[in-house]
Amino acid sequence: MNGEPEVHEEFEARLKAYEGRPAAATGVGRDPVNEPMIRHWCEAMGDTNPAYTGPNAIAPPTMLQAWTMAGLSRRPERTAAYDELLGLLDESGHHAVVATDCEQEYLRPLRPGDEITFDSVIESVSERKTTKLGPGYFVTTRTDIRAGGELAGTHRFRILKYAPARRPKDPKDRKDPKDPKNRKDPKDRKAPEERRPRPVVNRDNAGFWEGVARHELLIQRCTGCGTLRFPWLPGCNSCGSLEWDTVEASGEGTVYSYVVMHHPPFPTFAPPYAVGLIELAEGVRIISNVVGVPYDKVRIGMPVRLEFRRYDEELVLPVFQGVTR
Amino acid sequence: MSLRGRDGLGGRAAITGIGATEFSKDSGRSELRLAVEAVHAALADAGLTPADVDGMVTFTMDTSPEITVAQAAGIGELSFFSRIHYGGGAACATVQQAALAIATGVADVVVCYRAFNERSGRRFGSGVRHREPSAEGAALGWALPFGLLTPASWVAMAAQRYLHTYGLTPEAFGHVAVVDRKYAATNPAAYFHGRPITLADHAASRWIAEPLRLLDCCQETDGGQALVVTSVERARDLPHPPAVIAAAAQGAGRAQEQMTSFYRDDLTGLPETAVVARQLWRTSGLAPADIDVGILYDHFTPFVLMQLEEFGFCAPGEAPDFVAKERLPLNTHGGQLGEAYLHGMNGVAEAVRQIRGTAVNPVPGAERVLVTAGTGVPTSGLVLTADPQGRTRSTTGPPLHL
Ligand SMILES: [Zn+2]
């Protein structure tokens, strides 16, 4: 891992240099916006919106890209800059490509008779991202579509250029399975649909999951009024303050309530199993699993102690060891 | 101005505070946080505090729900929350909603908001999914990795605490199922027509999410239900006697979540239902003893018990006994457990039939019906009553339109 970031930085700077450069030659719409194409589109889409017919008809906004299409006989012309960028990514091992999404913005309606021009730029190249497919870079191109020279809409198209994730088949990756420290939990090998649902991580709660990764269970504390809070939110329900820090949970708690899950079965979880609502010694509650206790022995008031368990390559969860008396 | 003439809204409300975050290409923080900051700024501008706010309006497809912005902004109970659909066309309508609420006394201080990372949001995050997970998704995300995956399990977490607190067993929930199925059995429109159950059937049904059994959980239904609403005056000229909306209310509790409100108070009640109940009793001038029929939302039996307690029909912990003794005709169509699960809309129809006297299981002389909506989520309720003028007429002679 060490040393790698510098290499990335230099490489990424080279990629970033392509931002703002044209991705495709400036083009002119093959046909002006016209009623027959609108009609065909609406019929194909089953769209009966009255706005798209009659004397004051507008074109369906989602047709935006259709007005720039070159038809079957021609291919859109990539610029040298775009070819170079993709080439750089190919050479660095990111030779696989997948289209991830596109999005459109509509600034003004297009009407029959509008003459279309468009140009396309490389809008952004992301930092190196880790994805399920493998590490890679998102490349976004933006096409500005103009009618009579006035910006009418934009069409963004995003691809991921990535190095396909390797399965650990190399002999050097293979470890002695008899060595207990190399014995992987069979749960680690599960197909994605058999894995536990992932935590939903966003900017407001990322700190919690970073703590979990360090085997710390962090509770937010309002620095305005001192109230501890869980779940994580950007502000305090007691005083409204947005200022907060964290305290690390001692790990002691009790079962405040629990459910024994029986039905329906999910691939990851083998019913029956218990899910607990744990009240931490600090006074906040968290949903978790009670482990080390049979599902039918979990009780309200049972003391529990925090531990961290790995469920697969990516997932570590804070769980609670039941303390039976 | 309405289409047909002057409305009563003009001159009744004003915008008194404005506030915003900076406008940028990359805010560097969540949409929820932006919403909270904007709300604070507007309140400060107005010289008000979060404690003054009792209404919130936003757009649909906004990732920051009213209840979550309230939760993070220090705002407490809400008596009004609304989202307007149709994208940017909603902007002025949020203010109109607020004015309507204020002009009618439904809320005193309403905050309208909209906040997003339109520019940077789509690039944030890792992997092929670009979108920053919404606050709604994040709220559920605290439960899913641990296998708490279903609505039944979310209800069961509170139900377990209810049983523990009042020293009851899961059989306490069976009374609700038995009553619902009793009425469904004599309702030809009900899915479970002709199929009553006993407490023993309930106790023998399999666990779904302990302490909930199969017969505590409502069925799933394909179907539809519509309702027509008009003025009382107009309704008097139509074929059926009106079911007058004597009171209508929304409610969200403090630190409300959608089905996963595990982190507040003692889990043995439904604080959002209490907010609705207070308003319905106050506006209608009625009390629990005045109600002839209760149509209480029953996707899961435990929340019927908690609703009875929150509305004051009985004391906390006494609802199982209250239902067992059938102190109040309850879900006379068979409820959602017995008739159909149409997210409460079929219950409103049943209330209307009781007031008209056309229900299949009529409650003689029913004139005042309580109807409730989904529980464990921000909720609402109605008190429907017979037309007072219709009653006056019926004492002097037969009503004209029955
Ligand atoms: Zn605070």
Automatic annotation (TrEMBL), chain A:
InterPro entries: ChsH2_C, ChsH2_Znr, FAS1-like_DH_region, HotDog_dom_sf, NA-bd_OB-fold, Thioester_dehydratase-like
Domain FAS1-like dehydratase: 28-148
Disordered: annotated segments: 162-202
Record's compositionally biased regions (Basic and acidic residues): 167-197
Pfam families listed in its UniProt record: FAS1_DH_region, OB_ChsH2_C, zf-ChsH2
UniProt domain ChsH2 C-terminal OB-fold: residue ranges: 247-309
Start and end residues of each ChsH2 rubredoxin-like zinc ribbon domain: 209-244
The protein's name: DNA-binding protein
Organism: Streptomyces swartbergensis
From TrEMBL, chain B:
Residue numbers spanned by region Disordered: 381-402
Residue stretches of biased makeup (Polar residues): 391-402
Residue ranges of every copy of the Thiolase C-terminal domain listed in the record: 254-378
InterPro entries, sorted: Thiolase, Thiolase-like, Thiolase_C_2
SUPFAM superfamilies linked: Thiolase-like
Signal peptide segment: none
One Pfam family, short name: Thiolase_C_1
Superkingdom of source: Bacteria
Record-linked PANTHER family: ACETYL-COA C-ACETYLTRANSFERASE (PTHR42870), NON-SPECIFIC LIPID-TRANSFER PROTEIN-LIKE 2 (PTHR42870:SF1)
Protein name as it appears in the record: Lipid-transfer protein
Organism: Streptomyces swartbergensis
